[in-house]
Amino acid sequence: MRSLIDILDLTPAEIDGLIATACDIIDHPQAYADCCRGKKLATLFFEPSTRTRLSFEAAMYELGGNVIGFSEAKSSSASKGESVADTAKVISCYADIIAMRHPKEGAALVAANNASIPVINAGDGGHCHPTQTLADLLTIWREKGRFTDLTVGFCGDLKFGRTVHSLINALSRYTGIKLVLISPEELKLPSYVKKDVLQKNNIPYTQTTSLEEAMPQLDILYMTRVQRERFFNEEDYLRLKDSYILDPKKLESAKPDLCIMHPLPRVNEITVAVDDDPRACYFKQVLAGKHMRMALILKLLEEASV
Amino acid sequence: MKIDSIQNGVVIDHITAGCGMRLYDLLGLDDLDCSVALIKNVASKKMGRKDIIKIDAAIPVNLDIIGYVDPGATVNIIRGGELTEKRAIDMPECLTNVIKCKNPRCITSCEQELSHVFKLTDRENKVYRCIYCETKAN
Predict the structure, then answer these.
(1) Which one of A176, A212, B3, B10 is at 20 to 30 Å from A228 when CA atoms are compared?
(2) Is the separation of the CB atoms in A179 and A168 below 8 Å?
């Protein structure tokens, strides 16, 4: 059974196919309004995530399907001690496809190994979040029209930021990509990502602590939030949380066609004043997320029916 | 130092000096009732120093564990006091329930029934990663 656990489960050609479907959905939403009639999506959210859960639910409703599920672990059988494997087997009897978020890394793979229906990883701890990456890729595609020859800056928490790791993995398969990694020392991109992804794929990258210094060369700036939930130590979180704040002044040296992205939610790392800048694309990303999730649900259900 | 030769059993030879005890532990040799000799820092022309393990019983040994800990080791099967078979050792592509994932954020840390599975991701540098969280094995 085909599932999506990691963005690398999809080939570049499959990603192109999903983007084509998503663009067609954007242009002809009515043509897709009944595609999932009679189908059920189970949203199994073992940790709260309003945004991703609602995006999946909206995606399924716009395809004409239905949604069942839970939005926190305490309202599921996990609170009684049920394993992820058992939950996946049980839900397979009720639904046609699963979207699952879990605080533990690898939980989605466990679900996929035990479910008899497709499982979409909607985030497994600090590990992977492939549908966010699909949203990011559609945003880049619609803003830039290509995935090649781009200088992409990642700023903020590059250590625990799963969206960063996933997008770097996805972009590493295209040519002409240059990365600028902007973070405090403590939140630098893990060395295994640099070695296994960047060096392995000959992706040139530079590391800096200065957003201002990096700004002029960027085609895309991917801001991230320093996530409290990824720290064991509150002191470290408090010390690092305000490392980078993007405001209109910092954007003065940016390219006129810069694409500013953020997986959201933001706290204060992008000031509200930036929202009116035409280069701000983070709310477009949210919409792109819904359309890519629609395309993905269609693809996985179609493959499951063969 | 003299260790008697064995009649029927297994000799794991050419173990990198210092790896013998880890192999002894992971192979579960402490649980055996037969004689087992772990000889450390034996002089070796080829290796300078090496460890050797002699097991005085014809038991099956998990070659994947040996391949994971020390792919340069050799496994000799002894029958009737003669060397009858040399087993090839290679790094296994997958290790199941040999080592545990130490990442407290990994799903294996809270679901006790899950197998701990590691895959070989970098043969050159002998890197194994947990299939669930991709944490590197130590």
Answers:
(1) A212
(2) yes
CB–CB contact B133 A105 (8 Å): yes
Cβ-defined contacts of B58-61 (< 8 Å, 24+):
B58/B8, B58/B9, B58/B10, B59/B9, B59/B10, B59/B32, B59/B34, B61/B10, B61/B12, B61/B27
Task: Quote the tokens at residue A126.
Answer: 């600090």
A116 pLDDT higher than 70: yes
Q: Which residue in the set A84, A125, A192 is minimally distant from B105, CB to CB? A: A125
Domains of chain B: 9-87 (3.30.70.140), 94-130 (no CATH)
Strands (DSSP E) found in chain B: 9-16, 36-44, 48-55, 74-79, 82-87, 94-96, 117-122, 127-130
The Cβ of residue B97 has, within 10 Å, a number of other Cβ atoms equal to 10
Q: What is the ipTM of this complex?
A: 0.85
Average per-residue pLDDT for chain A: 93
B-chain CB neighbours of A104 within 8 Å are 105-107, 109-110
CATH code: domain A7-129+286-305 is: 3.40.50.1370
Q: Does domain A131-285 have CATH number 2.40.50.140?
A: no
Query: Which among B18, B60, B57 has a CA at the least distance from the CA of B37?
Result: B57
User: Is residue A230 over pLDDT 70?
Assistant: no
Q: What span, in angstroms and rounded, lies between the C-alpha atoms of B84 and B86?
A: 7
Chain segment B45-89, per-residue pLDDT in tens: 989 999 999 999 999 999 999 999 999 999 999 999 999 999 989
